[in-house]
Amino acid sequence: MLASELATASRTWSQGPSDLRIRWPRGEILNSARNRRVEFNAERGQPPSRRAYQTMTRLRTLALLIVVAHWIVAIWHLFLAASVLPAPNNSVSWLAVVLLTLLHGGVSIALWKISDKLAGLVSIILFLAALSADLYEHFLHASGNNVFMVAPGDWTAWFNASVFILLVLEILGCSLGVLSLGGRTRKHSTPEPNSNLPKQGHTSLYSSQFNALMQTKS
Questions:
Q1: Among candidates 205, 192, 209, 201, which has minimal Cα distance to 34?
Q2: Taking the complete model, does pTM exceed 0.70, yes or no?
Q3: Which phi and psi angles does 99 have, rounded to 5°?
């Protein structure tokens, strides 16, 4: 039954009145124009949600790189501090090395696993705490760690450089955390722009065949 109706519909399109012969190419032109418009928009750029997802992924990757760089410079800073400080503070605390490693490792895992906004919050907490400690220890507190009071020596310039590198990394980490808090989470789904096009084409085809069958029966 369905095959005979489809055959009747195709004969109607090829042999029917002129107004029926015009409808199918007209719908086909509209669908092809719609397809070309969507393809043109896709060539111009990706959907906003996909661009937001990629932006958040880049921010997350940069935050992870900053955490790793901060860990390396912090360990280096401990050895430099042991070189410039007088006794009994002229030795590296391996407990501090282990704690720094565990802290940065845990933060790295958290940044990769949790959502973007929580990752931004973790970044802000970590780098803001480190920034406050560095500002107090190396600029405000009167001690041998103060960059203005450190004893001159062969490693003094390197010690001061490590302090400023840590400050730059911590400011960058706080900035990325703020950007992540203001962005969209990566859990949002990405809509597909072409998902409705096949349905529209099938709907136009079925409606055209139905109109042809009604014209034939009448």
A1: 201
A2: no
A3: -65, -40
